[in-house]
Specification:
Helix content is 15%, strand content 29%. It contains three helices and 14 strands.
């Protein structure tokens, strides 16, 4: 690897960290007025206060040095920044325990919950007009302790987008207020995933996996809403989808800030309502 490539990679990582800081507010307690980082009808680019902090383990923690290798911009925007669907509809389950908005042409379908979930658990899959998978909402998930992560196995990660959202949750050690996030973890490529979470990432901007999971109120179980429940650095022989893969951090940034898919997904995730 040449010195030029390393320098270019570090500049991209620094630019992403600077952008997060510039979008952040003054507080770092994870609370704030919900705002879009993409797809806002008003074009707002205000991120959550925690998106600009680098406290160990917080979803907003930026992973320094994650841009090893060439990180030149390689993604062209498929749509203008901030473009969202013109028409939206609201999905509500028959028991009226959850609801969320989605573009008119997208499909939300209830499927059988996974074995071991709590009574009255829900599982709802969202696909686009062509039937391509986008996200799954799951409720009533049994609480599971985070797996052990050896220091040598942890991978650097970057939070490209982090926005606070008001949702019922359980606090305690290892949690913050819920956020809608898009995070990238470094493996042989940069692997990205969107979802809601109140589970902290990894110490010092490194993790073995990143959970798209909210610790639910006592007795209600945990819940998730995103493209996958857990993001990790995949091996070359593993299936990556539905996670995103990028050759550079610049491509991940472009996916979040210059295209319509994430703008629509973020608006959908932020519209989630859960009745206690």
């Amino acid at each position: 690897m040449t010195g030029t490539a390393i320098s270019r990679g570090l500049r991209i990582a620094a630019a992403l960290a600077l952008a997060a800081t510039a979008l952040a507010g003054c507080s770092s307690d994870g609370k704030g007025t919900p705002a879009w980082t993409a797809g806002s009808p008003g074009g707002s680019s205000t991120a959550d206060p925690s998106a600009g902090t680098a406290s160990p383990g917080a979803p907003g923690a930026s992973a320094s040095g994650t841009a090893s290798g060439t990180a030149s911009a390689g993604a062209s925007a498929g749509a203008s920044a901030g473009a969202t669907a013109a028409a939206w509809k609201t999905f509500t389950d028959p028991g009226k325990t959850v609801s969320f908005d989605l573009p008119q042409e997208w499909i939300a379908q209830s499927v059988a919950p996974a074995p071991g979930t709590l009574p009255a658990a829900l599982k709802i899959e969202v696909k686009d007009a062509e039937g391509r998978y986008l996200a799954t909402l799951q409720t009533g998930l049994p609480a599971q302790a985070a797996g052990a992560c050896a220091a040598e196995a942890a991978k650097p990660y970057v939070v490209v987008s982090s926005v606070p959202v008001e949702l019922p949750h359980r606090g305690g050690e290892g949690t913050i207020d819920p956020h809608v996030v898009f995070r990238v973890i470094q493996g042989y490529k940069y692997f990205g995933s969107y979802g809601i979470t109140n589970v902290v990432g990894g110490a010092e901007g490194k993790a073995c996996s990143l959970q798209n999971l909210v610790r639910g109120p006592d007795g209600k179980g945990d819940y998730s809403f995103g493209d996958l429940a857990e993001l990790k650095a995949f091996a070359p022989d593993q299936k990556v989808a539905p996670a995103k893969s990028f050759d550079t951090l610049a491509q991940a940034d472009a996916y979040v800030n210059a295209g319509s898919e994430f703008a629509n997904v973020q608006r959908m995730l932020m519209s989630l309502k859960i009745k206690n």
